[in-house]
Amino acid sequence: PIGPSAVFNPYAKVTPREMTLEDIDTVQEAFAAAAARAVEAGFDGVEIIASAGYLLTQFLSPLRNQRTDAYGGSFENRVRFPRETIERVRQRIGPDVPLSVRMAGNDFVPGSNTDSETPAIAKVYEAAGVDVINVTGGWHESKVPQLPMELPRSAYAYLALNIKKAVSVPVMASNRITMPETAEQILRDGCADMVNLGRVLIADPEWPRKAFEGRSAETRPCVACSQGCTDQIFSGKPVFCVGNPLAGFEGERKIFQADPSKRVMVVGAGAAGLEAAVTAAQRGFQVSLYDKAGDIGGQLWLAGAPPHKREILELIRYYRAMLNRLDIRLHLNTAVDHELIRREAPDHVIVAEGAEALVPPIAGIHHPDILTAWQVLGDNPRLG
After folding, report:
1. Are 360 and 278 in contact (CB under 8 A)?
2. How far apart are CA 192 and CA 183, in angstroms?
3. Of these four, 22, 96, 215, 333, which has the most CB atoms within 10 Å of its CB?
């Protein structure tokens, strides 16, 4: 790998080769050529990534850029590489194609740029020809949370506001903008002109349409777990979503219309049963959902109980809305046995009984002072 200087990167765990002037020209040309191909392919705009600790950000940072030539040292020199890259891209795609740059509002890495320096960087980007500035959080290697559910919703909107005060082009806010109400609050408070959505569109591609139609409650939530998206991408694997079984499987898991006269009984209103009921109803079946508990959700209540995990409970909100929208008949406090199945005579039965806690074969584990994780999360007992 190449970089502005031969400085060890603790995130990638490599020391890059310092880029020559020829390397710099080659990479800038690659940016411009890629932008031109995107326009030729029919994309509506181009965004340059100058965030997260990637190459353009490294040139800006005194932590990574220790060059002594025209691309290192002073602020003007360190900003030269990204400025020239933007100018070259703008020249290649012409004046009418929307050009955005995604920048860190604060690197959140000791010794690198903070929100005191980033407004000056944004001004350089504006002068270089961008139409929009997309403001995100810090670098991948930061110890400050950037993506997980423990990061409060829209926590980095203040970084967008900081940039918005410095430039005249529109500014986007990013990171953990989960619901339309959150986005609306950012705009109403004047923190940004637009919002940038990422993982939420994997969880629910219809997010913008539902927002526009006032159906926010029916938005399938992104719980910011990163298991199917970020973790997969960083491992070089295809994307999926733990909350949306269609994401990444759109070809294999198409929802075909079924015989509307057929009736489906779903036993168990946990995550699996709820998803099965919603999918069956979307296909056109007449669906009845049963659970012996007094509420839907099953183990989702346990999963959302620990600190910083409450976003998981948003799935219950989503399924409540979908049960109502799809007119799925819900029978709580109802244990399903053979007699009930014979009496209802459904055409199909889906048994989604969930799992049981794993109890390891350890001597004394059934002592009254020994508690399972489920007991702690579900009953919230006093702990010694």
Report:
1. no
2. 10
3. 215
Q: Are 122 and 133 in contact (CB under 8 A)?
A: yes
217/90 Cα distance (integer angstroms): 41
The confidence band for 10, taking pLDDT boundaries of 50, 70 and 90, is confident
Q: What is the DSSP string of 163-174?
A: HHTT-SS-EEE-
Quote helix, strand, coil % in the chain, to nearest 5. Answer: 35, 10, 55
Q: At 229, is the pLDDT very low, low, confident or very high (cuts 50, 70, 90)?
A: very high
**Looking at the chain, how many residues does it have?**
384
Q: Which of 135, 155, 114, 111 is nearest to 50 (CA)?
A: 135
In angstroms, the CA 46 to CA 292 distance is 53
DSSP string, 40-92: HTT-S-EEEEE-TT-HHHHHH-TTT----STTSSSHHHHTHHHHHHHHHHHHH
Verdict on whether the full-model pTM lies above 0.85:
yes
Q: What angle do CA 210, 215, 218 make, to 5 degrees?
A: 90
> What is the rounded distance in angstroms from the CA atom of residue 175 to the CA atom of residue 137?
7
Distance CA(372)–CA(375), nearest Å, equals 5
> Helices H, strands E: what count in the chain?
15, 11
Q: Average pLDDT of 319-326?
A: 97
- Partners of residue 49 on adjacent β-strands: 102
HSE-up (13 A, CA, CB side) for residue 26: 7
Amino acid at the residue 57: T
